[in-house]
Input
Amino acid sequence: MIDDLQSLMHGFAVVLTLKNLGLMMLGVILGVIIGVLPGLGGANGVAILLPLTFSMAQTPGGQTSAIILLSCIYWGALFGGAITSILFNIPGEPWSVATTFDGYPLAQKGRAGAALTASFTSSFVGALIAVLVISFLAPVVANFALEFGPPEFFAVYLLTFCAFVGMSKESPFKTITAMMVGFALASVGTDPVTGTLRLTFGTTALLTGFDFLVAVIGLFGLGEILLTLEEGLAFKGASARIDLRVVLETWKELPRYWVTSLRSAGVGCFMGIVPGGATPASFMSYGVARRFSRNGDKFGTGVVEGVVAPETAAHAAGTSALLPMITLGVPGSPTAAVLLGGLLIWGLQPGPLLFVEQKDFVWGLIASMYLGNIAGLIVVLTCVPLFAAILRIPFSVIAPIIIVVCAIGAYTVDNTTFDVYMMVVFGVAGYMLKKLSYPLAPLVLAIVLGHNAEASFRQAMLVSQGDLTVFFANKLVGTLTGLALFLLFWPLVSWLIRRLR
Amino acid sequence: MSEERQTRPAFRYKTAELVMAGFFIALGLIVIYDSLRLGATWGENGPRPGYFPFYLGVLICLSSAVTFLRGLLIRPEKNGTFVEVAQLKLVMAVLVPTIVYVVLVGWLGIYVASALYVALFMRWLGKYPWWLVALVSIGNSVAFFLIFEVWFLVPLPKGPLEVMLGLA
Output
């Protein structure tokens, strides 16, 4: 505990250099812009900017600077999503859909400033609680995970993916399809163990397989723009300015909802760590708050509490999604998956050893979470009108520019035009899948983790000579596998229970 | 009259659901086929390359088959609009130029193709005056050139124009 505090202080020392603070501000501002723009979000914004950090990560201490830049983009995007939800009734990010329920009515009542302040502040509180959880839980989890062998790691992967089946709102069969297609895409190219070519059908373009960054840019970028298009070409929104008086008045009101805040942060942290994700966390927390609140029946007509609940949970989930990423190498959200991909490209192996071998990096990242969220809160509170103005740029100008940015991002991943074509294919796929409510998060996570999951599965199988009972061999792996199977069959169980009633 | 035509569904949910599930079943079969070719059994040195993908293919087929059957059971009154004609037109208005754009990237390089692409959107969908179209589309490409080639030293695809200007 004391050791951790010391490491954390050391982390602050790493972050508090002029260069890293500058990158932090840059990241937050870019992130908010990305969060506000349709078609650009946390996951693909980070994916597009990832190639720009390749050369940065080569310098000493550069990996830490790179992760600070990228993670701050993520925090910024989390903040930015709320702006469009409240002012324009367009959720900039999927996790801010629940924020529109009360945020937009508040804006229509002329209380946009209060809604924005409440949303930013509760985002900050949610993130802060999640970072505290990470600071104290991550070293424990990492320490624990040092003992893990291939069967344990495969069980953790299994748990991650079964959690998607058990907890997503979508049809479990569609979740399984999306996930397996992701794994299949990951297995295209050279087999990591034997070097055999798989699923390439003689084409050279597929030798290296599908890069998940291209998939992310296509699915979440182009796909999202095509979806936005259906709503028409113009954005109509309320204008807002936040002055100090509104901020202080809202801050005076907020402590009243401390129970809602704490509960939402709890829901958020839980959902972030077990890869439920920020989006279900925000809905769940909104639902719970409505049921337990004294003025629950007023929810949806524009109450501040209805903004506090989803925003706190979304930010707590988005932040705590990094905990399994750095300790186990299993990301809790698509954006965390992209960050994990970044770590791999920079030559870092995410997982428990990170806490032993890369102390500067890990604690620098954790310290930057504290500071980045403070920076984010200040930036969004002071610059809302500026960011809202971005949305007034007509769609016929901003849409092609965003698509150009996506194309550049897809190209720079591997310097091939083939990836740009693939981006369009993934874009169309993303549009279709989203409309048919196939979940995209497990698909992306499967592409990222495919190689590792397969490798740990095959290693475990080699050790046991093909005996599947290795996944129940000891208490630890047995518990993980059992929990995974329980989550996998949860939709069936809950359906049966409903039937019996 | 024309109003009515615009909200007419281009496709209904059932069609889309069946097509997508059918596509996934085909994909699963391709994966199974290639895995069997590589050997999906237990070899001398442990699982052969097709071992893991084989089961992926099987799971894709099984889960999509369930989705397909459920799609067949969608009753007509619950079979809502998947996409309206007007919406589909808008989506196509963006998608088709985007496909042309990425093909052009290979020939003309990304800067020229991007300028043309932005210009098309602004002129055709936005109806902006030509001087503004030229300013934004060319300015955008120049800005990206400065950011990527000059500041971050990331080379992007270039075409005949850059060669002519001695930039490639």
Notes: Chain A touches chain B through 60 residues (CB under 8 Å).
